[in-house]
Write a structure and sequence with these properties.
Layout: H1 3-27, H2 29-45, H3 50-56, H4 65-72, H5 81-86, H6 91-103, H7 105-115, H8 119-130, E1 139-140, H9 141-150, H10 155-170, E2 180-181, H11 194-200, H12 216-229, E3 239-242, E4 259-260, H13 261-266, E5 283-287, E6 296-299, H14 301-309, H15 313-326, H16 345-357, H17 371-383, H18 394-402, H19 404-407
Antiparallel strand pairs: 1-2, 3-6, 4-5, 5-6
């Protein structure tokens, strides 16, 4: 990919969004002020004190243009599995994770005993969410949430998050000026939305407050509590890379198919060294994140629990694999032999359009490569007797383009 061209395109998109967004903000500033006054009145009725409201909304005079730009923009390219993993598995990150596991050994041990989440996994979530607390986001959570709550597209969701954030301030867990996070309102070193904080954050250091911004015991205990409540199993790993038999039926891949380890063993799934994966009744799924030419993973219940935290299979594999690297295991062995070509947003829209022409039940093309699109790819592959890995590659798009009945 031409990185310089990509940079120019991104700059042009940002410039265009500034032209489109800023005039509307200026024109609607009086409306925003009236909306904010009504929201503050409602918050007061919900028990938020005048002092907290004054402190929380100081400087919140208009919607944040940058938040709207980030919310409304689409990524130019859909990240490939190899690119995704490469960006998250640096030697420096692995080395630092191992050092922090040693440095905070007693804290990790105490939290594992209380919540049943193994230290290497907690460290992996911590690394991927905020680079061990270095990158928690520089936006005012209140200002960001107010901006998104004012925007009518998902107003109800973000309005609820905003009220919850105010309740967190009211409870004294953090000072208004220190409540920072991502443009979408995800907070602290574990990047909890306010509602997640409300349901799962815990006081790990016993000081009477829950501070996921500065207190590492609070950060790790809160993450562990969330995972435990979501179904984490203390006596299981996330999964492992495996070798599939030459005649493997890829219709059996994906999170929708679950078999016992013993059943997968009978089908010829093997460890990387060629040995049987063993006999066990625990259920597992085969995940092929880069299609038939990439690695295969046998994933267990903790993989599915990770997807409660973040529904991306790429993310769930990254959490598990990074945890393995912290424990001394090696890199993924069967990464694609060549760098995959990334699909652009327009490419995904075209792929969806071609699938719809082929008879898929997909709705209007939206350029988002989600579960429904992957299922549509798999259905097409099954119908045309292709290997049904559900992988929307650039090669698959080119194949669709070559079909005369679709391209006209």
């Amino acid at each position: 990919m031409n990185q310089r061209l990509c940079g120019y395109c991104s700059a042009a998109l940002i410039a265009l969004s500034l032209i489109l967004v800023r005039p509307s903000l200026a024109a609607g500033s009086e409306d925003f002020a009236a909306w904010l006054a009504a929201l503050r009145s409602e918050a007061a009725k919900k028990g938020i004190s005048t002092n907290i409201l004054e402190a929380a909304f100081t400087g919140v005079d208009e919607p944040l243009a940058r938040v709207l730009e980030l919310d409304q923009s689409q990524p130019e390219f859909v990240q490939t599995f190899s690119g995704y993993m490469k960006n998250r598995m640096s030697d420096a990150r692995i080395r630092r994770g191992r050092e922090l596991l040693v440095k905070h050994k007693e804290l990790f041990k105490r939290i594992e005993q209380q919540y049943g989440v193994q230290p290497q996994y907690l460290a992996s979530f911590w690394a991927l969410e905020s680079n061990f607390g270095d990158a928690t986001g520089g936006f005012s959570v209140i200002n960001a949430l107010a901006t998104l709550a004012y925007d009518p597209r998902r107003s109800d969701f973000f309005r609820g998050e905003l009220f919850t954030a105010l309740q967190i301030l009211q409870a004294g867990h953090i000072k208004p000026g220190e409540m920072t996070g991502s443009w979408a309102g995800a907070m602290g070193q574990c990047q909890f939305m306010p509602s997640t904080f409300q349901h799962y954050a815990v006081d790990g250091d016993g000081d009477g407050r829950i501070d996921i911004w500065h207190s590492l015991p609070d950060v790790l205990a809160s993450a562990a509590h969330y995972l435990a409540q979501s179904g984490w199993k203390a006596d299981e790993r996330w999964g492992r890379e495996v070798v599939l038999p030459a005649n493997f039926d890829f219709a059996l891949s994906g999170t929708g198919a679950r078999k016992s380890v013993s059943a997968w063993n009978e089908l010829g799934v093997r460890r990387l060294d060629g040995k049987p994966i063993g006999q066990a009744e625990m259920l597992a799924s085969i995940i092929v994140p880069a299609g038939v030419d990439g690695p295969a993973f046998l994933t267990y219940d903790n993989f599915r629990t990770t997807m409660v935290w973040n529904r991306s299979t790429f993310y769930a594999i990254a959490v598990g694999h990074l945890a393995d690297r912290f424990m001394g295991e090696g890199p993924i062995e069967h990464m694609p032999a060549k760098e995959e070509r990334a699909l652009g947003h327009a490419d995904v829209e075209e792929l969806q359009s071609l699938l719809i022409r082929s008879g898929s039940s997909l709705a209007e093309p939206d350029g988002v490569l989600g579960t429904k699109t992957r299922d549509a790819v798999r259905d097409y592959q099954v119908h045309h007797k292709l290997k049904p890995d559900g992988y929307a590659s650039y090669e698959f798009l080119e194949m669709l383009r070559s079909r005369p009945n679709l391209s006209n």
